[in-house]
Amino acid sequence: MEYDAYATLARVSEHPGPVVALGAVALLANWYYFFECARLSRRDRVPPMALWATTVFMGHDGSYLLKYDTWFGSYDHWFPKLFWVGLIVTVTFEVIFFAQTIRYGRKELAPNLSQRLWTVYCLGAAVVGILFWVIVKSVLDDPLYMMTFVITLGMCVPATIPLLLRRGSRIGVGLRQMWAYLVIGLGFLGLLFGVLQGPFLEPLWWVAGVLCLGLAVLQLAIVYRLAEVAEGSERLAEPDFDVAFDKPTGHPVSY
């Protein structure tokens, strides 16, 4: 699983065209996937994904941005610099996801909590998720975030499928969104296996890649089988903040 950062960047410099093309495909698909997550969350008044996933994504992408000196100083290479710029957009979306989860998530995920307690819970979860990511990243030998990009890609599916099965329809999700998710994997894994090669062709990298693509196809197949949400149909109701702050519903918690 180990790789040398400088050797990898040298390989990138040898093939700038394919690297930029595949990297752009993955990044643009990621932006569109996140845009759809936010748009559909707002449309249907539901959280865009599991809270734990949002907090880990914030920790992952946020930590990359905080390493500005590493990318622009120590390595001083255009590849991590471009990713740094691209992740400004993803972090912005992740903050939006977190706010949407606070606003829309209580009725679906913790209806017995008041809105105030739900907000406190979400803030605590964000702290735990970010600290968890910092600890995990500190023990991984992944200087350019290559494996952690694969890990976070794979995390989207277990963060979404339980919501799909609970809702029983395309509430909060869409086909274009899931196709974009699959394209993210094809672009980034194509970059690893087709261009960078070397240590990225070791068996564990292939296992991780095949698993990510398999999960993406599974998720897409599930969404195809779910009923579409018709415009104007009844969806999960928007939270009633006047009531929610002081009057829990008494329903069991569902995390």
Describe the protein:
The C terminus is likely disordered. The chain is built from eleven helices and no strands. With 255 residues, the protein is mainly α.
The total count of strands amounts to 0
Largest sheet composition: none
Q: How many DSSP H or I helices?
A: 11
User: How are helices and strands ordered from N to C?
Assistant: HHHHHHHHHHH
Hey, roughly how much beta strand do the residues contain?
under 5%
Alpha carbon gap, first and last residue: 33 Å
* Helix proportion: over 70%
Radius of gyration: 19 Å
Please give the domain count: 1
- pLDDT average, as an integer? 88
Globally, the shape reads globular
Low-confidence stretches: 236-255
What structural category do the secondary elements indicate?
Answer: mainly alpha
Secondary structure elements and pairings:
Layout lengths: L4 H10 L1 H29 L6 H16 L1 H8 L2 H27 L1 H4 L5 H25 L6 H22 L7 H22 L6 H23 L15 H4 L11
Condensed summary:
The chain has eleven helices and no strands. With 255 residues, it is mostly helical.
Characteristic key phrases:
disordered C terminus, mainly alpha, 255 residues, globular, 11 helices, single chain
